[in-house]
Amino acid sequence: MRTPAETVRLMTEHLGDMGVPAPLSGGVSPFNVLVGTVVSLRTRDAVTLEVTKRLLQRAPTPCELAGAPLCELEELLRPAGFFRVKARQLKETARLLCERHGGVVPRNRDELTALPGVGGKTAAFVMGMAFGIPAVCVDVHVHRISNRTGLLATRTPEQTEAGLMRIFPREEWTGLNHVFVCFGQRVCLPVRPRCTACPLKGECEWNP
DNA sequence: AAAACGGGGGC
DNA sequence: GCCCCAGTTTT
User: Fold this and answer.
1) Residues of chain A under the 50 pLDDT cut
2) Which of A46, A84, A104, A144 is deepest in the core (most CB within 10 A)?
């Protein structure tokens, strides 16, 4: 039986072999991370990247984003899913950052989730990626892969979150989400997983 | 607990 | 053409 650490190492190495870059540690501002994460929900990563780039080019700071006309934000966000909702949420979030947080992205879960469009998963992801604060972000990929590979046999994302926090040291929490998501997009797909090319093959409960 | 938001890509 | 997607908010 493989240890959880070994399972994650196999996934990480396989991603490296496929040329998937490791999560960037510096060079991206917390504001950039926050905007990008909100844009990303239910939207492909290529579209997310392009839309986020244009958005931040138009409005590099929270105050500039808060001052941009809603119709212009909708136009920039059009290729992304839920673009009207996100335009409204991002404009309001930017206004709150500008007027109530001094233009700075807050560092704790409660203040982050108080922003429109920011739920528990987005907050956890931003804390980890923007500030290096240990937090696990259990999205649909993490939950699915954990169950398929036999890492954890949990029924809800909340149980998966608790389980991951128990079996992995705090300093590894932040990196987990990125590994699971990249692996979930390329190998352990929701539908028709590519088991023949999977490094976990042989000790996976889904495809032993 | 379930529905609504929603355009884009894979098959 | 049909189905799925790094979720959050509202009913």
Assistant:
1) none
2) A144
For residues A58 and A78, the answer to whether their CB atoms sit within 8 Å is no
Question: What domains can be seen in chain A, in order of their start residue?
Answer: 30-106 (1.10.340.30)
CA distance A138 to A178: 10
Question: Angle of helix A30-40 relative to helix A120-131, nearest 10 degrees?
Answer: 150
Q: Which residues of A114-153 are buried (b: 16+ CB within 10 A; e: fewer)?
A: ebbbbebbbbbbbbbbbbebbbbbbbebbbbbbbbbbbbe
Nucleotide C1 C1' to residue A186 CA (A): 25
A172 secondary structure, DSSP code: G
Which value, to the nearest 10 degrees, does the dihedral of the CA atoms of residues A99, A101, A106, A110 take?
-80
Digit-coded pLDDT (tens) for A9-40: 999 999 989 887 776 555 689 999 999 999 99
What integer pLDDT is reported at residue A20 of this predicted model? 79
Both structure tokens of A127: 């804390």
Task: List the A104 CA – B11 C1' distance (angstroms).
Answer: 44
User: Distance (Å) from CA A82 to C1' C7?
Assistant: 11
The proportion of chain A whose per-residue pLDDT surpasses 70, expressed as a percent, equals 97
Minimum-distance nucleotide, CA of A47 to C1'? B8
